[in-house]
Amino acid sequence: MESPAMVDAVVMFPSPAIGHFISMVELGKLILTFQPSLSIHILIVSAPYSAGSTASYIADVAATTPSISFHRLPTITLPSSTNTHYETLIFEVLRLSNPHVHQALLSISKTHKIKAFIMDFFCFFSLSIASQLNIPGYFFFTSGAGCLAASMYFPTLHQTTTKSFKDMNTFLNLPGLPPISSSNFSSAASDRNNKAYEYFLDMAYCFPKSAGVIVNTFAVLEARALKAISDGLCIPDSTTPPVYCTGPLIATNNQTDGDTECLNWLESQLSQSVIFLCFGSLGLFSMEQLREIASGLERSGQRFLWVVRNPPSDSQSLDISALPEPDLNSLLPDGFLDRTKEKGLVVKSWAPQVAVLNHKSVGGFVTHCGWNSVLEAVSAGVPMVAWPLYAEQKFNRLMLVEEMKIALPMKEDEKGFVTGLEVEKRVNELMQSDSGKSVRERTIAMKNAAKAALSEGGSSRAAMSRLVESWKH
To answer: Of all helices (H) and strands (E), which one includes residue 70?
Structure first.
């Protein structure tokens, strides 16, 4: 029999990918501002690779937000023969964690009344457990609504062709989205013979079975995609679940972490004069590509702040193993650091991205188009040059350039290589041309819209309020 002293709780299950993890914890903090009496429990799965640590972030949240507790699930060891595709590794670890998730939910429910189980969309395997235990299961979608629309429509695309996207060489028309080149799908979802393709398809079939989908975006940024979803066009054969746009969710704590070199340097630069280049926690470039970026920056004459990481040890373009600090003198062209020292600053491996983007001296951002980075740039009103590297980032570039009009595209060759001439051209275009000015004005309008969405009476606050209210009944 249920004890009257039971505390209402929400259990959250993030993907171990660092960007997914942090935005879900930020969602947990936001939920508490609407219902402070809730207890939030976050299940942690260890990533199947070593890329960035969440330890200091978790310690900070645990110290400042006592209503959030973390439960580390037993580590899953994958067989060494496992496919090394980044997404496949994550899916496999999450699939094999299902018995531990079941155990954790049973354990938490002994002392709490679980009102909702919110899982990252990569964790779709656990929706069946929530159903078994009669707990409303929600998905948290850490990318944008455009990407959600495409994911929801994925089964329909799958049924209309027998070809893999990678073999199509055509444009596809999806509800609420600009025409999408078949090459813009993530490599994991491009090949029907890939295990990850199967998982993405299974995930898409789970959306209608959920109690709702929470998306890290805001209504004005992606109005057309959201209308297509709410009109039921993306899931034509089933029921579209309620969609709650609660973003932008951005982690602002722990941002400087003792790193003041680049912020001090920015203090001495003119307003909006610096272009910032940073490519996420996983993105890496070959030495040849780093040298092309360097030559393009030098020739552009623009002021720059550039985060450089060591090249991958083999053909792997993702940092899924820990790398040593880069030796800038050996990686970059001879004399580059010396010749550009009045104009630029190169920092090793990491910079406090949110603090940098919000600095008055920063006027542009060359980004890998990871969704958290996009939202951080939008919230700071900084226009972008979109240079996608992995996951759904090519799709994000399409949305940023064609639909939202808050970025210029970096053009790569068929092997993904970008020349120094292209870097020079795009950086100058963003910082000096009319098209750059138009993108800047549009980004500032979106910054104001993001602020309004999160304010009293704003769309994201209203969505969050509806979601939390639904748990009271």
So the answer is: strand 68-72
Q: Where are the beta strands (DSSP E) in 121-267?
A: 137-141, 171-172, 180-181, 212-215, 243-245
CA distances from 446 to 362, 383, 402 (A): 17, 10, 15
> What pLDDT sits at residue 187?
85
Q: Which of 33-37, 49-53, 349-353 is predicted with the least confidence, judged by mean pLDDT?
A: 49-53
Exposure string of 416-428, with b = 16+ CB inside 10 Å and e = fewer, is: eebbbebbbbbbb
Q: Helix 18-34 and helix 55-64: axis angle, to 10°?
A: 10
- Rounded to two decimals, what is the model's pTM? 0.96
User: In 211-338, where do the E strands start and end?
Assistant: 212-215, 243-245, 274-278, 303-308
Report pLDDT for 1.
44
Cβ neighbors of 55 (< 8 A, separation 6 or more) are none
| Residue among 295, 282, 464 nearest 388 (CA) | 282
Amino acid sitting at position 473? H
Measure the CA–CA gap between 363 and 358, rounded to whole angstroms.
Answer: 10
Tokens 């929530």 sit at which residue?
130
For 173, what's the count of Cα atoms within 13 Å in the CB-facing half-sphere? 0
* DSSP codes joined into one string, 349-386: S---HHHHHTSTTEEEEEE---HHHHHHHHHHT--EEE
Helix (H) or strand (E) holding 436: helix 434-454
Pick from 258, 256, 253, 352: which is nearest to 305 by CA? 352
pLDDT at 39 over 50: yes
User: Residue 69 phi/psi, 5° resolution?
Assistant: -120, 150
Residue 15, classified by CB atoms within 10 Å of its CB into exposed (0-12), middle (13-18) or buried (19+), is buried
pLDDT single digits (tens) 11-34: 999 999 889 999 999 999 999 999
Average pLDDT over residues 375-393: 96
Q: Hey, how many other C-beta atoms are within 10 angstroms of the C-beta on 153?
A: 22
pLDDT bucket at 188, cuts 50 / 70 / 90: confident
Do 447 and 455 touch, CB atoms closer than 8 A?
no
